[in-house]
Design brief:
Blueprint (H helix, E strand, L loop, with lengths): L1 H15 L5 H8 L3 H13 L3 E3 L5 E3 L1 H13 L2 H16 L2 E8 L2 E8 L21 H8 L3 H10 L13 H14 L2 E4 L6 E9 L5 E10 L5 H5 L2 H16 L9
Antiparallel strand pairs: 1-2, 3-4, 3-7, 5-6, 6-7
Protein name: IclR family transcriptional regulator
Organism: Streptomyces thermoalcalitolerans
Keywords: DNA-binding, Transcription, Transcription regulation
Length: about 250
Amino acid sequence: MSQTVDRALSILPLLAEGPADLGRVAGRLGVHKSTALRLLRTLHEHGLVYRQSDQRYRLGARLFALAQEAMENLDVREIAHPHLVRLNEQCGHTVHLAVREDSEVLYIDKVESRYPVRMYSRIGKPVAVTVAAVAKLLLADLPEAERRAVAEKLDYPMYTARSTPNAAAYLKELATVREQGWATDFGGHEESINCVAAPVRGADGRVVAAMSVSAPNVVVTADELLALLPMVRRTADAISDEFSGRTPAKDPA
């Protein structure tokens, strides 16, 4: 039974390359055409493959519907939280997870610093979009026209002397963030708080969330915090892999 399931599932990545006839499917699986036909018929009955008028097979519409439904029901916070906790245990600093909802970027998870001096933030609170590292990552991923439209609608409060002053400066910074794949906020919102952030990406490569490590400069300097960037990026990549289904789930004990 497991071999049959394995063969049937092996057909799907083959058809993802493009329509294939019975002979090609059988050849790829290393089975007789009758066996391949039986597998294709079963997949066809479930809507996972479709037989075209030229007798070639392609992926079925139900497969895409299932994938879309699965993505809509994924909870990035639930997937990310254990990774955020481990990162916090390793570095000791405050760890955030944020997403973009309409015109705002919101914190949806937070793991507190183990140090007595902490930053004020809370789950559900909007971030300062023009300076927050997580916001820069989420907006930098937008298509250029949308990115420009959003930037031109924003207000640019000068929280500190390091705050982003206007749309032109913000768009320039977003272009840098988009190219390098990470972001910082070194005293842009609060002079005493520094932050480094990395993106969480979905299966299509788009940024679905952003995570960050933040700390007061009385605990670590900006350079010391920036040295943690490889660790932050590895954590974001691990969340991305699990969210996208690239990391196999562990068998239950």
